[in-house]
Amino acid sequence: MLRDGGQSLREHLIAAAARLLDRRGAAGLTVRDVAREAGVADGVLYNHFADKEELLAHALHAHIRAVEAALAGAVPQPGEGSLAGNLRVWLDRSLALHAAILPALAGLTTQPKLLARLAELPALPGGDPGVRAEFADYLRAEQRLGRVAPTADPRAAATLLVGVCHDLVLSRLLDPAGGPPQPDPELVAALVDTLLRGVAPAGPG
Amino acid sequence: MLRDGGQSLREHLIAAAARLLDRRGAAGLTVRDVAREAGVADGVLYNHFADKEELLAHALHAHIRAVEAALAGAVPQPGEGSLAGNLRVWLDRSLALHAAILPALAGLTTQPKLLARLAELPALPGGDPGVRAEFADYLRAEQRLGRVAPTADPRAAATLLVGVCHDLVLSRLLDPAGGPPQPDPELVAALVDTLLRGVAPAGPG
Amino acid sequence: MLRDGGQSLREHLIAAAARLLDRRGAAGLTVRDVAREAGVADGVLYNHFADKEELLAHALHAHIRAVEAALAGAVPQPGEGSLAGNLRVWLDRSLALHAAILPALAGLTTQPKLLARLAELPALPGGDPGVRAEFADYLRAEQRLGRVAPTADPRAAATLLVGVCHDLVLSRLLDPAGGPPQPDPELVAALVDTLLRGVAPAGPG
Amino acid sequence: MLRDGGQSLREHLIAAAARLLDRRGAAGLTVRDVAREAGVADGVLYNHFADKEELLAHALHAHIRAVEAALAGAVPQPGEGSLAGNLRVWLDRSLALHAAILPALAGLTTQPKLLARLAELPALPGGDPGVRAEFADYLRAEQRLGRVAPTADPRAAATLLVGVCHDLVLSRLLDPAGGPPQPDPELVAALVDTLLRGVAPAGPG
DNA sequence: TATGAATGAGTGTTCATTCAT
DNA sequence: AATGAATGAACACTCATTCAT
Questions:
Q1: I need a surface site. Which of C68, D123, D127, D163 has the fewest CB within 10 A?
Q2: Near strand F (CB < 7 A), which residues?
Q3: Is CATH 1.10.357.10 the classification given to domain D51-197?
Q4: Residue at minimum CA to C1' distance from nucleotide F10
């Protein structure tokens, strides 16, 4: 991809790296790949970044911000709609986010240099911790409105929501056959229901 | 480690690779590392495996089986103990399993050759799908005993259980600071409670 | 270091390069280092010099002239003081000169391009050949005054003087431990004595 | 040059590197150059040496030993022949040694890693310090025989002898025109004479 | 069958030099 | 003239894989 003149080469490199991160993840990504994707010379990145990891950290950052920006506005408001419907929206939103982010993130677990560089960057406004916190905040608001049990633990519920996304996305990543891009809608509905009512039989609880 | 004569060199190589997989994960693992760990010559693996990936796929397989074997017997029996206590045991068990397996698995998402080799192997008796299925079976048994709501979806509950483990383990892997090896016990209790009762307010069910 | 307007950029670059040559020698010196030291843009040197080597040749030239200028006035006058004392002064002077010049020069033996550029420059008024010639001239003057044997060969004596400096400075450069900056004073005294009287036993001459 | 089967590849690599060291010095010598000279693959040296510097240190060691071996037997015996003749032989010998060694050594002054590796190797039986020590020993023996003044300082005389070699060889190295391979015989004779008698006028000693 | 030396393409990185502005 | 971003060949070094023994 050739560069359009409207952005600095630094941003152009970050964008090219972010594209590759999205497509192929962080593992096995070479600086030559990035240079080719950006349509520039091999060594050019060292005029703008200390090393490969600094570029990739910025690219990952940008990728996550881009994914979040694309999902903006989809957040249900407390008190509006049904609780089940809202949970479903949160789950869909979190799934979309993780489907776009986890492939790049999974290959990072074994790249300490990259993780360290990432930690140097300003905290992501959202990202993985972002959905978790936003969803917990939403639940607390619903709690105040009486639509969520006062004994419920928003942090635990948020962990279940995010965890399910990790699971569904990772399973697909590890499946060489690929699998369907969208999870089974029936499973999603059952997940929402389980989050809502739990598995215990109805009782004086 | 020297080879004891009781096993084939093939098995010996798989065991050595599995040890390294457990210690350091799949990324950055060289065939020289494996050969040194096994105490054999560099090129010997090509007499027993088509390539590095085939060996690692077998090693991963063996590693997962070993972790499962170490956890055998910890499975709560339906109808015995409290449901909450049993869920807690299942969660601990699943966490231990994923803590031992995910580090090796996470680095795999970007190694298609390895994933393909893994798919050629006989399906894992347990592994990630294993816990999921076993826990779902357990819930169905409890359902038959009336200790779990007949409307509960065992598959969804199992996905939540496994997902939470992915989340907790991955978060630690991605945290450059490391973080505590054990998750917060309060969070674990709240997770079990949420799985049991959900977040919806108590109502006519 | 910012440029003062009083000198051409060309001279400014030469001065900056000469400073680095003095500090770090010719090896491992990049054009970026020079540009940064001069406080100018990377490519500016190519407006004033054909290539890196031409700049460095000029810088070396300037460095040597600067070292010589700093030593000016220390030259013993023929007929004044003792011959031994004067030889000692010459040796000290030559040592100081070589200590300042050889580190930059030693790395040059393997840079043919730089040597060729250096040869294009006007012969150094002093430099290494400078001390040699000046000392030989001094000896010839002392010879005319009868304080040096008429059979002595000033050129040979000058070569011994300069050679000893090469040896002492090079040995220190090649010693990874570093070694003392000043040579052993007893050795220096013995060197002067040997230059004066030789090793042959006193005899009928 | 292809390898003859009679030596290990390790020795073959050392020999190839020593040839290049002799021809072109240590500066600007790449691992590819060595591999090409040895007629082997690029990366092969890392099967035998920790890094480039370890190989070059061994090569330099071998080169110096080879030069010394070629000069063995040329050492004058104390008490035999004339002192002047013997000094001349020592000077020739030292010159030959330095002419063969200094080109490789001069480029080393700026390679700290290589110098450190060299320091790890067993001390050279001879080498530069070798001639110096041997010549000083020779002078002491002549002193005991009364053919050298009891007041002479063998260490200083040896430093002058070695220093002159450094000077003559370095001057040629730094002369891009090359210059004659052999120094002016008249100068050599005058050097010997100066070492013998000094520059002071004949007197009561 | 086991060895381990040899291979060579590929890695991240540097840096003298160019050239549009 | 001066800039400094871009270039791309070169560097030291790694490692999966091969093959003569």
A1: D123
A2: A 9, 40-44, 46-48; B 28-32, 42-43, 46, 51-53; C 9, 40-44, 46-48; D 29-33, 42-43, 46, 51-53
A3: yes
A4: D30
